[in-house]
């Protein structure tokens, strides 16, 4: 298990995808420092190569340095966008496997979460520095702090009319739907059988969502789940001729033939309330008419269940 952070620990902020400037993450740096952490900025912060935070070589070098540095106790990805899949196959995880550390991010960082899961190592799907100034992000930031420092976390999840009741146990995996679909059949892909999968996405056409769900289902990713958590499907777009269903209705259609519990409306994704989740940790999902309870198994040390933050 990855050790919890302590005051005085050193963390690195790197950008593996879209470019970002130092002023955009200044609040995050100050926040981390207020937690007693020492922040080291990668060379990708402020770098640019067209769309990216430096060319592939620089982004690879920056991530590799942070992975290999034994004094770095956590790596926080500054933002998402696109670009992590371009370098993932060149990353050497040898040192990281011997000395695991927290890796934090979401969206495009789903590539890293998925790849790290194949190594049997946990990671944290959570808010990134770019979004710290976003109105309403305070609770998301606090859940990240609690998870990184090994404190108990309690979440309230309201019921949703699409929920399918039941109880499931399994490793929690997932992230951005578009990225997960693009990883199918690659060395960053892994089986979903017996696991609790969570999904979120942003700025996609509804027919794209349908196509991705069809693909996941045809490739066997939906059939043998222990449970499914559906997060935010934000800023969905439609065509001139309407697709005719919302993102949630599309997911409901493609998972309706299965019997595992499904939770809709879980606060994870591209919204201000994006609660920190530990990918790869054993969890229990209990979906009831009155609400949802998700708890990490006792050995995990972090608990998510109905209540308040």
What can you tell me about this protein's structure?
The chain has 309 residues and is α/β, with parallel strands linked by helices. The chain has two domains: 10-148, Murein tetrapeptidase LD-carboxypeptidase, N-terminal domain (Rossmann fold), CATH 3.40.50.10740; 166-300, LD-carboxypeptidase A C-terminal domain-like (Glucose Oxidase, domain 1, 3-Layer(bba) Sandwich), CATH 3.50.30. Helix content is 26%, strand content 22%. Strands 2-1-3-4-5-10 form a six-stranded mixed β-sheet, sandwiched between helices. The radius of gyration is 18 Å and the shape is globular. The chain starts with 9 loop residues before the first strand and ends in a 13-residue tail after the last strand. It comes from Pontibacter saemangeumensis. Belongs to the peptidase S66 family. Residues 169-285 form the LD-carboxypeptidase C-terminal domain.
Question: Top keywords for this entry?
Answer:
2 domains; Rossmann fold; 8 helices; 22% strand; disordered C terminus; 309 residues; six-stranded mixed sheet
Helix content: 25-40%
Rg, rounded, reads 18 Å
Please state the structural category. Answer: alpha/beta
The span between the termini is 24 Å
Query: What would the CATH topology of the largest domain be?
Result: Rossmann fold
Task: Using the 3D structure, state the CATH architecture of the largest domain.
Answer: 3-Layer(aba) Sandwich
CATH domain class of the largest domain: Alpha Beta
Total domain modules: 2
Q: How large is the count of helical segments? A: 8
Physical arrangement of strands within the biggest beta sheet? 2-1-3-4-5-10
- Major sheet: size, sense and barrel closure? 6 strands, mixed
Mean pLDDT: 95
Query: What does the overall shape look like?
Result: globular
CATH H-level homologous superfamily name of the largest domain: Murein tetrapeptidase LD-carboxypeptidase, N-terminal domain
Count of DSSP strands: 12
The H-and-E topology, N to C, reads as EHEHEHEHEHEHEHEHEEEE
Our estimate of the beta-strand percent is 15-25%
Question: For this entry, what is the oligomeric state of its chains?
Answer: single chain
- Spans where pLDDT lies below 50 across 5 or more residues: 299-309
